[in-house]
């Protein structure tokens, strides 16, 4: 194998697992790697100053160069080049991969809400999240903004400044996408009703759902928004309200879940001679959405396409799962996931909002859900997810550039991860 460092060709920038002691092909038995336990991470990562299977990083800025770690890897496959990966086909969000039960079962405004933990009154738990797969080995916990998608840095112009793009164009694209996100959230996902009643997870209020048939239910006349506004029933300390009001809240989250599962791979609809559907957006907005997605991909040098390569590779494995933890409120986060074509790699049960409880607490919930026998890998660009990973002794893969996404995909292909 050959060596690549943070100053070499394809893998320029702060890539791979920070301050790794190196993957040396002469020292590791790769065929046996998929069966490793979390404690074995010590042989790959610098043991100081963090726990043995967490590697340290002094770099907390997504725009600054990394430390000079050296990695011993095989030559990258010929399919990966230093050129940006482009996907001129405008049909986004159609990703096909093997399915497993756990995978395929059913911006400043984004900062308010409540933790909304289920109070567990012993009522019917309608459509709970599926139990973890018994053969699950690895859980990849992803950040969203500036890791999988470029969004906030479009709005601020910082991406354009960093990569020599036109800042006004960048800001315009960001504003157009922001408008589309909130339009979808307000129109189809009850964000006007739920903005002050945000939850961490889609099933957090499902215990208040009595399972009533909602096919003819009129959400517009059930009195929920007025009650929420007048009584200030959603507070930062948790959800407050009577039995009837809580049931109406649960109904909305159940419908959101149904909508997400229906359109997670078809938010824009199809438009071909063989098959047509309007999706959630309708024909006119669908065309605007496709155009906007293409323009953002061009400006960001196919950042999302690179992230999707890693996400879909993980999704194709029967023993791995993708989890999303974002500081965006849950409802706008779901809108983002749908509009960026990520629904197929993130089932709604695998999406968590850290708006109120923080990412570290979300990590604790995920550990409680999947157990301590699996290996967790955190992928992100920010300090919060890095610190959460450190506390729970999880390896952290920093994303600060395109090359980091390429290196991640390469490491996944070689089954280092």
Order of strands, main sheet, comes to 9-8-3-10-11
Helices, by number, come to 13
Going by helix content, strand content and strand pairing, the class is alpha/beta
Please trace the helix and strand order, writing H or E for each element.
Answer: EEHEHHHHHEEHEEHHEHEHEHEH
Nearest-integer average pLDDT: 74
Coarse shape: globular
Over the alpha carbons, how many angstroms does the gyration radius reach? 22 Å
How far is the N terminus from the C terminus? 17 Å
Beta-strand level of the residues, as a percent range? 5-15%
Please give the CATH architecture of the domain at 138-414. 3-Layer(aba) Sandwich
Largest sheet: 5 strands, parallel
Can you tell me the CATH class of the domain at 138-414? Alpha Beta
The CATH topology of the domain at 138-414 turns out to be: Rossmann fold
* Helix percentage range: 25-40%
Low-confidence stretches: 1-16, 18-128, 272-276
Gist of the model:
The chain is of the alpha/beta class.
Notes on the structure:
- Helices cover 35% and strands 10% of the residues.
- With 417 residues, it is an alpha/beta fold.
- The chain has a domain at 138-414: Rossmann fold.
- A five-stranded parallel β-sheet has the order 9-8-3-10-11, sandwiched between helices.
- A hairpin with a 4-residue loop joins strand 6 (270-271) and strand 7 (276-277).
- It is globular, with a radius of gyration of 22 Å.
- The model is unreliable at 1-16, 18-128 and 272-276 (pLDDT under 50).
């Amino acid at each position: 194998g050959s060596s690549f460092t943070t100053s070499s060709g394809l893998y320029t920038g702060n890539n791979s697992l920070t301050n790794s002691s190196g993957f040396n092909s002469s020292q590791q038995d790769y065929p046996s790697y998929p069966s490793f336990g979390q404690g074995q991470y010590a042989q790959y990562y610098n043991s100081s100053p963090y726990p043995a299977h967490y590697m340290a990083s002094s770099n907390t800025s997504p725009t600054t160069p990394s430390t000079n770690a050296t990695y011993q890897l095989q030559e990258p496959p010929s399919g990966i080049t230093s050129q940006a990966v482009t996907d001129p086909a405008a049909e986004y969000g159609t990703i096909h991969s093997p399915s497993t039960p756990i995978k395929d079962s059913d911006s400043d405004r984004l900062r308010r809400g409540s933790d909304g933990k289920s109070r567990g009154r012993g009522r019917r738990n309608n459509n709970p999240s599926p139990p973890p797969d018994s053969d699950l080995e690895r859980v990849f916990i992803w950040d969203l903004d500036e890791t999988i998608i470029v969004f906030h840095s479009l709005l601020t112009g910082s991406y354009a400044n960093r990569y020599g793009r036109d800042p006004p164009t960048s800001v315009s694209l960001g504003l157009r996408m922001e408008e589309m996100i909130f339009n979808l959230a307000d129109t189809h996902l009850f964000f006007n009703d739920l903005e002050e009643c945000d939850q961490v997870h889609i099933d957090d209020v499902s215990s208040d759902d009595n399972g009533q048939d909602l096919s003819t239910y009129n959400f517009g006349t059930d009195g929920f928004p007025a009650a929420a506004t007048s009584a200030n029933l959603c507070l930062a300390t948790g959800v407050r309200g009577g039995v009837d009001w809580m049931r109406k809240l649960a109904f909305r989250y159940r419908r959101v879940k149904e909508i997400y599962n229906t359109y997670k791979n078809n938010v824009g609809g199809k438009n071909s001679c063989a098959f047509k559907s309007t999706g959630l957006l309708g024909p006119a907005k669908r065309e605007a959405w496709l155009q906007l997605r293409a323009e953002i991909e061009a400006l960001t040098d196919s950042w999302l396409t690179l992230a999707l390569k890693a996400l879909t590779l993980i999704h194709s494995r029967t023993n791995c799962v993708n989890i999303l933890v974002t500081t965006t409120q849950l409802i706008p986060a779901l809108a983002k996931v749908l509009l960026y074509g990520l629904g197929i790699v993130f089932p709604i049960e695998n999406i968590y909002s850290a708006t109120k409880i923080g990412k570290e607490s979300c990590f604790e919930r995920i550990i409680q859900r999947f157990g301590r026998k699996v290996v967790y890998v955190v992928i992100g660009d920010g300090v919060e997810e890095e610190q959460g990973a450190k506390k729970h002794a999880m390896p952290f893969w920093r994303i600060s550039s395109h090359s980091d996404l390429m290196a991640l995909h390469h490491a996944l292909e070689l089954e280092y991860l």
